[in-house]
Automatic annotation (TrEMBL), chains A, B:
Pfam family, one: Vir_act_alpha_C
InterPro entries the UniProt entry points to: Tscrpt_reg_PadR_C, Tscrpt_reg_PadR_N, WH-like_DNA-bd_sf, WH_DNA-bd_sf
Name this protein carries in UniProt: PadR family transcriptional regulator
Domain of life: Bacteria
Transcription regulator PadR C-terminal domain residues: 93-173
Organism: Streptomyces tendae
Domain Transcription regulator PadR N-terminal: 7-80
Length: 185, 185
DNA sequence: ATCCCCATGTAATGGGTTACATGATTCA
DNA sequence: TGAATCATGTAACCCATTACATGGGGAT
């Protein structure tokens, strides 16, 4: 139940059309709450129906036409309410860890290539985050909003750092391991 | 598409009934691939239909009766195939980070209490992991299967360590922040 | 007998993913 | 005018979540 609130946040930061939102979900918000354009359009329709946002009164709302939305006061209130309310952390799901556990039973054949690939993906994401940090949070500025957003970015940086290091560790273990073909018991 | 493979792994480690599987998902496998008993029963039915597992031929399969399953050779092959195949990492979704970003716009009221709560939950999970490590991986043993499973546990330990530290950091920032009521712009 | 817990399920709902459809604009 | 791209959507399917249902066994 967080997609609508992700959209409200993004729209408060800057009123946008569906496609602009989609692009911003690919870049920034989506780093910790991903969404496809289909989800976004569906949700924009719902939010408008509930009176939390409205289409900016400009062009004709025909099919191929841009339609920008802005947040209404009710939407801002809903977001503030949701932000303040206590929520339990969702249980994780990590397919790579699951595959390692499976590999302990059926053998590690083929896994290390993918571990290397994941390592590179995480390293690249880490580099992306560091660029954003250099660009958006140069030393010196410290408005409260900046500090909060920087904190979020820091979580991303530290998580990607963890994963690259852990994968290095895992690959080192793999190098020492006997090949572990899948043994029929 | 990983739940069936999580179940195959668990059943290879030890043939079990639906409820036993549910309990083990609550304890160990579920730490990185959670599932409820409804999901598990549904999936057990599917896996049996596909000929990947079978019910152990023992008791009568009446409604209130235990029914244990074991993995068939086809199931082991499917798991080995899935383990070896390259997979893209799924995009994350983290509601807490999203709430922080929302807080940068609508104010931080009420958030720090929940940050503290999350910190305690992560600290407790970390303690659980450390106990498992002491119990299951005492110094000295290093069968290949153990090293893989230990590697997975290490990921859990390091992730929880990261979160407790990051939340400490976040709470320290909050303490310094002006109260940031939600300002209407 | 009744109550509670164990064990296996069914049904309804909702969100996410993938594939496809349609109109508008731009450019060769 | 035809192709490519932008922009907004629809539809179908799958998976996860929540609530409920049913039967068996043990304890008081």
């Amino acid at each position: 139940m967080s997609l609508p609130h992700a959209i409200l946040t993004a729209l408060l930061e800057k009123p946008s059309s569906g496609l602009e939102l989609t692009r911003r979900f690919d870049r920034s918000i989506g780093y910790f709450w991903s969404a496809t354009h289909q989800q976004i359009y569906r949700e924009l329709g719902k939010l408008e129906g509930e009176g939390l946002i409205r289409a900016l009164p400009s062009e004709q709302p025909a099919r191929g036409q841009k339609k920008a939305y802005e947040v209404l006061p009710a939407g801002r209130e809903e977001l503030a309410r949701w932000t303040a309310v206590s929520q339990d952390p969702k249980p994780h799901r990590d397919a790579l860890l699951l595959r390692l556990r499976a590999a302990a039973v059926v053998g590690t054949t083929g896994l290390d290539a993918d571990l290397r690939r994941h390592r590179e993906l995480h390293a690249r994401q880490l580099e992306t985050y560091r660029e954003i940090e250099r660009r958006d949070f140069p030393p010196g500025r410290d408005e409260p909003e900046d500090r909060l957003r920087h904190l979020v970015l820091r979580a991303g940086i530290d998580l990607e750092t963890f994963w690259t290091q852990w994968l290095d560790h895992a690959l080192a273990e793999f190098a020492e391991l006997p090949d572990m073909p899948e043994r029929q018991e």
